[in-house]
Every structure is written in structure tokens, then in C-alpha cells.
Amino acid sequence: MSSSTRRKSARTASQATQPASSARRRSPSIEFVGMRRVALAPFNDPQADFVIQTQRTNTMFRVSLAILAQASSFFRQVESQRKQNPGLRDYEHLDVAESDATIETILRFIYPVADPVVQDLDDVCDAYQASVQYKFDYVAKRLREFMLSPRFMDNEPVRVYAIARRFGLAEETNIAARHVLRFPPNWPAYEEFDHISGRAYHELLTLHKNRGRKLVEFLHSFHLKEKITCMKCCPREATAALPRRQPEWWQIYVQQATPLLLDSPANEDIFSLEFILKVAIEAGITCSMCCTSIMQAAQPGGAIAILKEGLASKPFDLVVSNT
Ligand SMILES: [Zn+2]
């Protein structure tokens, strides 16, 4: 059962008496003709030489096979076979299991009209699956770009990860996984998980956990390489026997940043001067010179900027299996 089919089965009793696609109200370009529905312009051309009919609602999209053939090797083959077998209905009509919204989305990408309005990830996923099935390569590429748009990456990167894993999209999987690291690993049981393996899910969790640990390890050793100092807290130079003391504010900063890095390894709040001052003030640091040290560390090119670069440069080690 496809994800969209499951969504339809979850409709309420009152919705169940309506055509399936009406529940989502994503495809207003429909008009009724007797018991059948015909898509509105430009997919209602009575002179069209091909009909795509959605089985769920019997909606007919009257389209140009030549336009479809330009965008899809599947329809190029249909066009070729029609030339060899003129008059056969098989090459003039195609019943499809996809929803009206999915078909309209694909057609709007390949027709010289405005791009479709893709409202949510379900739309993207359904349309992508259909575009692959019917070999609309350009449409598939555009939909992969949609998956990576800030609208989805900023809010639902875990869902994008699962969709990318489902369809074997390596680049999109990696990009989505990086965005997942901006958030705690307490995501809900998304429906998209039904379509990926337990291993694929575990790989994301492992990435999150390992990334947090690796960055915290780097944070804790950072002061050994960089001169984070305070004239009052650590007045003397380090020696082999006696390493330099850490400024009071830095010790508090590391303590407070550690759980945040473990929770959200790509969270950038910890690099802000606001965060550093906040944790220092709330901890009630006693050193009167630490404030100067903080301002030096937080300036452009200072220790905090170097820390940020160092954390970001850590190899991204998502392990992606073939399952
Ligand atoms: Zn100090």
C-alpha cells in the first residue's frame, strides 16, 4: 500500500463519501462531465491526442503525447509504438493509480505553464515516485530540489532523510542527515519510517550519537591547542610539566555547551556571544577579567570562530548501507 493510499484510508467517515482527492483539496483544476471529471486548462484540450485517467476519481487529463514524449522515455516509447500500431486505444489512453494532484504536479512541470504549488512533503514524495515510474527525469530532478528546499530542510529533515533513503538518493540522504544534526533525536514516528529499513533508521541515530560525542571530544581538548587565556585566571605561561590553566569562563562554557552539542551536534547557538555571556553570568563567575577574555575569544577570527570551524571540519561519517 502506498503512503498516499494509507492517508486516504485514514479519512473521516464524512469524507469517505466524497471523491478521494477532494479530501486534500490540492487540485482545484477539475470540472465534472457526467460521471467523469476532466481537468481544467490546459489539460482539457478536446483536440488532445492522449488521455491520462486517474483510477481513483476517473479524472481525465487530456494531454499532448508529443509533450509527454519530450519529457519522458516511457512516453517516447508509447509514441513510437503508436506510430507502428495506429488506432489502438492502448496508445491513446493510460489509466494510472496516482492521484489527481500527483498527475497535475508532474504535468505542470513539463507543460509551458506556471510550476505546480507543492504544499507538503507528501506531495513531493508521491510526485517523485510517479516521475520515476514514468521516467520523467527532469521532473524527478526538480522534485529532488524541492526536497532540499529550506521549507523542508528547516522543519522536517528527518522525513526528507527517510524519503531519500527510500528512493536511494545518496546526495539528498547526506544533505538531509546534516540538517537532522541541528535538532535533538526525539523525532516522532513519521510515516516515512515505514518505507525504510531498520538499518537505515539505525544509521541515522548512530550518526547523531557519534557526531555529538566526536564534537564534544574536540571541544574538551580545544583549549590545549588554542590560547584561550585570561590575565587574571591564568597569568603564567604553560610549561610541559604544568599546562596553562583554563579561564573560569571557558570551563563554564565547556560545561554548558557539552549537553547542547550532544543533543544537537549542528546547533550553532553555542557560538554566539549572547550564549557565552548568558552562561557566564548565570554561573556567577568571580573573575573580574574574564569578560575581556570572552570578548577577545568571540571577536571575528577569535577562539570561538576557530572552534566553530574546527567542529564543522570534522569528517561527516554517515554510514549508508544498501538497505
Ligand atoms: Zn578570568
UniProtKB/TrEMBL annotation:
Name this polypeptide is given: BTB domain-containing protein
Domain BTB, residue spans: 48-111
Species the sequence originates in: Somion occarium
Bias-annotated ranges (Basic residues): 1-10
Domain of life: Eukaryota
Spans traversing the lipid bilayer: none
Region (Disordered), start-end ranges: 1-27
UniProt feature, compositional bias: Low complexity: 11-22
PROSITE patterns: BTB
